Queue: 2 jobs
Job 1
Amino acid sequence: MPDSHRKYYEQTPDKAIEWATTIGIFTEKLVKKIFETTSEKQALRSVQVLKKALKKYSEIELEGACQTAVEVASSPTGQLVNTILARNKAQTGKVDNPLKQNKTEPDYGFTRGAGYYGGGLNDE
């Protein structure tokens, strides 16, 4: 049996909660809530989604997204947490990267205008 399949079969609710505890208090609350509201098999899949999210996001980002999911959802899922993570990344990305600004803002101008090329707007 491949290692990836073996890891899936070795996963238990107790191990999932133990893993969530290492990330943070809200991740632990979320995982417990997932196990309470869905079937064990689906809950284990959601935990796998959370673990996979750590490849792209930090533990702090995951913990914040889990906090939001615990507060807003009655039956949270791993996909909900992924959506929250993506939304948070998109919102912070706009602030952090000034090159992604909307180019139709009033302070945006052409680097070379008609005067540079020897013409003017009203040359009649």
Job 2
Amino acid sequence: MATLVGTVPSIIDARVHFFDPRTPPWSLQRIGRASVPVLRALPRPLLWIASQFTQEHSLSGIAGPGLLARRYQLADYTKDLAGLQSVAGVPVSAVIPVDSQWRRRQSAEDSPEAFQRDLDHLLAQPYGVDGMPRLGGVIVPLDERAVGLGVRRLLDEDDDDLIRGVRLRWARHPDPLVHDWTSTPDAFATAHVERVLPDLIRRGLVIETLCYSHQLGELVEVADRYPEATFVVEHLGLPAGVFGPVGNSTGATAAARADILNLWRERMAMLAARPNVLVKISAIASPILGYGNEKSGNIGGQHILADMIGPLVLHVVDRFGPRRVIFGSNAPLDGHNASIGVTVGALLDVLGDRGEYLLAHLFYENARRVYRVDDAATPDAGSAET
């Protein structure tokens, strides 16, 4: 089995979450998870109406049972790296955390101060202490709430230049039990986003986007509109239900899953023709892809994960090339189905025979270049390619 020994000095994990649901702004509505079986039993018209009153119901599709109710910090992440060394042969030297606010709609907690608390929480982790990974930079939210609530202020007050990108969560799905990340039909066309986006691009910030695969065609138009920007598509373009049923009826039949896969392949090929678009190979064990809903792991191990995710990963790598793919563990949200070691091992199984150049860029070089990860955050970075 392939390892990363001699290929990279370490791994840069470009997608992790740190959160504490006991405190704002992560306090979630606990009714959500318990309401899912009841919601599924409703007729479709009533299902849509009920879903609007239980806004966190579909969060059960993005993480394992009970995970979002537990605190997750850098120390927990470091424990979850156990077993990675034996698989990859190298450690994780730096992480790039993203905001972990899962609430979809505006609330009293949505204020510039709330977003500042989120950023402060990310920055307060003990990076680099006792062998824990260093901080490579942070990604802050850019949605209909955050844009109007001081994203520019966060950037202007970022004296240490640690904000490396902004993240627009514009995923909306016609299935009422698949989570909507926004209530805005076209997030990129909102007055707030259109007003602030050019300024963010001029600042050299990466524009990360979270959308479902059927929305990727819209991103093609945005990438053409801003050719000077760097866009990163999260989670392989998120083809919800591609492996099995999720939500109410998404991916419920083989024919439906084939349609999801075919549309995803077509849209990713279109995006690959835009040189300013990269793909984050993250969330490859996410429940939302349709692996199953058992309380214990739903995949069965590294080799099964490699067999399932392999065609998607290879399609992305073949179209985007080695310099436009970035690894992210999505910890801890995928931990229910696969550990970080299993996730990395599955990718090595899929891509090991593609050569060291691809592996070096996927796991290290591209994240260091795109997110401007400081040399001090990575070992032997001075010898790495820029």
